[in-house]
Queue: 2 jobs
Job 1
Amino acid sequence: MILKIPQNSNFKLEIAKELLLLIEEAHKEFDRSQSDLDWKWETDRSPIDVGGKTYEIKLRFGFAEYFFTLGEILNTDINGLGDIGRKRVPFGFIAYDKDSNSVYVVFRGTMTPAEWITNAQFKPGCEPFLRENDLGKVHRGFHKIYTRKDIGPNLFKKKDDKPSIRECIENAIKGCPKHTIGLWPTEAIEKCPTEATVYTTGHSLGGALATLATLHIKEKINPFKPILYAFANPRAGGVDFSKRFEGLECFRIANSEDIVPTLPLASIDLASGSNDTTSKSLEKTNLPKLFSPKLFSSLLPELDYHHIGEPIYFTHHKGAIADNHIIPAYKEALGII
């Protein structure tokens, strides 16, 4: 398999390798949280060793695990879900490498190869990014994961509240004194150097969240202009949202045989201003008759979704839908042994 890197691209293979290994580390931290129930990951700031480098951990962030299924996230309003089976788990971290003066905002994705395909209905709602209309609209499920406080298992005990991922990222990059990360104790966090390079990255669902984090940092955490490397990510927002990324370096790495980057559907509006024979024949196609009413209605997005960033494609058919999507396929494409 060969990565298709456009001529004159600023895409850096070694950076992509480094970031994918950090994403894999975020997955390992999830595994540890499941096997080591005594691990206090929310307050653990121990450094990590990945790919021969040591990274300082500025902060780990998390969310409630009832959102593991990407299909459910794509199709569900988070406010409508209950606390059944709720358990807070790590979703990623903000790391710092002093030698390169680089900050890394890292998101893991869904944890089980088949989880994101268990629900085939992809009818996402949308809402303004960061509640600001001029930033464009984004997928409601992704947005709520990024911005909603974790209210804890008891609605009436504010001391159980945890900060949103958005707040964690702001605190980790801007810096904050002791005891101000949500409502749990922590040591003070130093502000990131203003000349630091900030990378945002994630795989699958994590790639969508990294996309949101990229614009959030650009718009709200001056003077940083983050660089996005998103792997196997679904579309996150509409055309107005995508326009706000102008001037940023953004790359989306995708397997052409992976179906997740094709979701949510960009559009199913068959009307065309073209006189092309194919487009006219498609307009006459009665799609509802080709699918069950439930399936067809489930495909209708509320937003024309757009990809973000320069496409970096490869083709690697592993023989199964899930295997075309998971991290090992992407490691092979990047030449990580």
Note: The longest strand covers residues 53-64.
Job 2
Amino acid sequence: MYPIYLLSAILSPWPRTPLPSLSGARPPWKKSTRSSSVSSGQEVGSAYRYLLLCLLLVLGCTAQAQTALPVTSAAGSTDRFGQLRRQLQVLADSTAPGLNQRANLSVTGVSLQEFVRGLADTHGLNVSVDPTLAVRVSNNFTDVKVLDLLVFLAREYDLDVRVMGNILSFYRYTTPPPVKVAVPAKKLRLVYNEPQDRFTADLAGDSLSSFAKQATQLTKHNISLAPGLGGRVITGYVEGMPLTQALDRLAYANALRLSQPDGHSYVLVPAEEASVTGAKATVTRRVKAAGGTGSISNPGQASSSGADIALSTAPDGQRLVSIDADNVQLTQLLNDVSADMGINYVLFSELVGTTTMRVKQVTYADFLALLLQGTSHTFHYDNGRYAIGSRVLEGFRHTRVVKLQFRPVDKLDEVIPAELKKGLEIKIFKELNSLILSGSLPQIEEITEFLKSIDKPVVNVLIEVIVAELRKGHTVSTGISAGIGDSTVKTGGTVFPGLNMSFNSASINSFLSKLSSRGIIDVGRVTPNFYMTLQALEQNSYLNLRSTPKLSTLNGHEASLKIGQSVYYVEQVQNVTGGVSPVITTTQQFKQVTADLAIKITPLVSGDENITLTIDAQFSDFIDAVIRGAPPGNATRQFTSMIRVKNEEMIVLGGLEEVRQTRGGSGVPILSRIPIIRWLFSSRTSAKQTNRLVVFIKPTIMY
């Protein structure tokens, strides 16, 4: 506002002339000066005032803009949404072109999750919305850019959009904590003359921790603070005093006590922990050791013949105890500590044994827990007093139901170590997937912590098995065969696509008669039962079999898969009953032959996502029977292996490649080996068969 005040001050001596109107009339200072009564000095002064006025207006606008600029920066919303828009634009220009598309939507009372999911499904986007967002959307958008729509949602409903690759994740925006600026430590007014050991300090509400640090650096004597004093302040003035006396005076003036463990270090402690006579004095006493003679020792003096008990008060008013005990009877130490602290307790069973203990500033409950640890006793607090007794007595037993979140409760009691279960009753409650623990509270707490440590989600392992089998065969049969049969053979067979014909004697004699009638050759006639077979046949077979079974199981558990087929054949049994007229009884039985694909896999996942697989795979298939009428044969391939593989890595478990090639033939000696004419005096068969079997394994960890 200061430019306005300056403007009014400048305009105060200005001639009272009317402001220029919007009608186009010339302002007074633009009129002709021929009839003006204003002097040249006044005109120059008016010009200077006008220039100064313009300068002040510019400075005022600049100051106002600079004053308003931090308001937008403090909110931080402009930068946040601008950065979001830039990130989405980069994503739209690369892997998510759907952000540049136009959308037309009209919804009322739709959840934010459904709204964003429908938008992403329409425009091909990958989104994830926090299910805890309870936001209802009621809007109407026409021909709006998807990128602008997402920025609008983030601004309107205070959302945070995180971009990971081409995935957009929507969360509730959380304002980042303000950046804390480190405040430099105040330089205290401290002076130390080391040759004369004179210390001067002028303190007024200064930090006690800063005083200890700077005084240590100045005097080269370590000055430490007791726990809990780091946040206190110190006030006082000393001048030209020895260091020890000066620190003692400052400590006394601020309700502190100075302690000097050695000649080069100092410790400042609260005054109520001092072993002095008074209302807040620490009580220190000596307890008789087991088997020794007891005596009252001076406060703070340690001895191996007993135990020191020191009481103190915490800043919150809670009573604390410090104990230094060496081979002291448990009952005696319990009685003396309870008497000094004014604690009521009831002992239900005898407490036997001794203890050696050195603890500082612990509560009475912590003292009891340490005292009874390793014994058969426990305690609980009820109606202003502590009850102490054996863990198996009534009132000291506890029962707790421990519900498991991720693991099944079946056979879980077998996993618990025997030492933890000793003296504790454990029951399995399947309906709630829980364990019921009954016994002493410390044991129940110990087993509960153990169950929490093993109650973790167990990963699933998806195992893909690819079995590829290729069978390829090629057979060629050629030649001429002839013979005399028991009966007349009919002429017939196959001409196309392969030649396989049988001729009887009539056909052969007709062919020979034609040859002799034409004067080519005369070989006579054949007998009626004579036959001839002409064969020129080529057979090809091809089989490509691929099976991809998939198995899922928990880590460390076996997964098994068995797929098969069965073929039945008839087996006849004849029973002959003896006698004058034997009776023959025929019985038919159907027998089964199976061919299975059986896989058993047990995965074990290590910490680095390597998977150890124990695999037992068996593949069997039917083959043609060798003997006519016999049941079909069975070909079996089996793999048993243990391998290690990385997550989502495919390896070859095993394979079999078999190439079988056979050649056979029969014919007239010598003539069957002569080229060209051997085809008339021999029969030949050539076969080649190739079998390939490969098994692939690919495990995938599923969290």
Note: Residues 313 and 677 are 124 Å apart (CA to CA).
